[in-house]
Design goal:
The chain has about 260 residues and is of the alpha/beta class. The protein has one domain (about 5-195, about 225-255): NAD(P)-binding Rossmann-like Domain (Rossmann fold, 3-Layer(aba) Sandwich). The protein has helices spanning about 15-25, 35-45, 60-75, 95-110, 125-130, 135-145, 150-155, 160-180, 200-205, 210-215, 225-235, 260-265, and strands spanning about 5-10, 30-35, 50-55, 75-80, 120-125, 185-195, 250. β1, α1 (about 15-25) and β2 form a beta-alpha-beta unit. α3 (about 60-75) packs parallel to α4 (about 95-110).
Amino acid sequence: MTEYALVTGAASGMGRATAEVMRAAGWSLLLVDLDAGRLEAVGSELRGSGAVDLLAGDLTDAKFIAQLSGKLAVCRISAAVHCAGISPGMGKPSRILEVNLAASIALVDSLVDVIADGASVVLFASTAGHMIAGTFDQQIAEAITRRDLAPLQDLATGPEIAYAISKRGVQLLVRNRALSFGKRNMRINSVSPGIIDTPMSRGEMTQQPLMKTIIEKSPLPRLALPREVATVATFLCGPGATFVTGTDILVDGGAMTTSSEILVE
C-alpha cells in the first residue's frame, strides 16, 4: 500500500514548502487547504511519479474533520505535518484560538486511530509560544486535556496574546499526547519557526516593528526561508528521528537566545 504524508495549509507559505520538500524526499502526498483553487495549482505542480491527492476544506469545521477522517481511514498515513494556521493580523482572538489550537487538537484526535504503525506527526507552533512559556501553562494544559478552550478566551485579550497562547498550546499539546502516541508506536513533535520569509510574516512585520528588532539582534540576523523550516519538519518524519517525540524544535536562527534582552529594552 502507498504510504502518504498529510500536509495541511499546503497551498501557500510553509505548508507549500513542506509539501515540496516531502515530495522531493519521495513521499506521496495528501494535501489539505482551505483555498481549493490554490491547492489544485500546487497539486498540479507536484504530481509526477508519486500520488498527490487533494482535499479542500476548513479544519475548524467538524463536518470537514469527519470528511478528512474518512479519507485518512483509506490511506496509509505514515507522516502528518500540520502547517495550517493564522497570524495575529488575520483574525479576532477567538478565531485565532479556534484555527491554531482547537483545529490542531481535532486533527490530532482524528489521526491517532488511523495513522500507520511507526508514523510521525509534526505540528507547527511558533517562537511566540516560547515567549510566554510558564505564564499560562496550567490553564492551557487543562484546556487541552478537557478539549475546551473557553477558559482561554479571558486570557486572550488581544490578537497577539491569543496567537502566543495558541502556539504555546500546540507545544503543550505535543507533550500531552506523546505518551498515548508512544503506546501505539507513533511519534508527535512540534516545530517552532522564527520569522519566516512568507507573505504572512511580512504582513505582520508592517504591524509589529518589534519583529524587525528581533531579526536584527538574532545570531542569524535574517528571515528564514520556508524550505529551511520544512526541511526540519521532514526530518522529524523520517528515519533519522525515530527516537524523537514529545518535544519542540526551534528553527529561529537563534532568536530565542537574545529575545529576553530585546523584550527588556
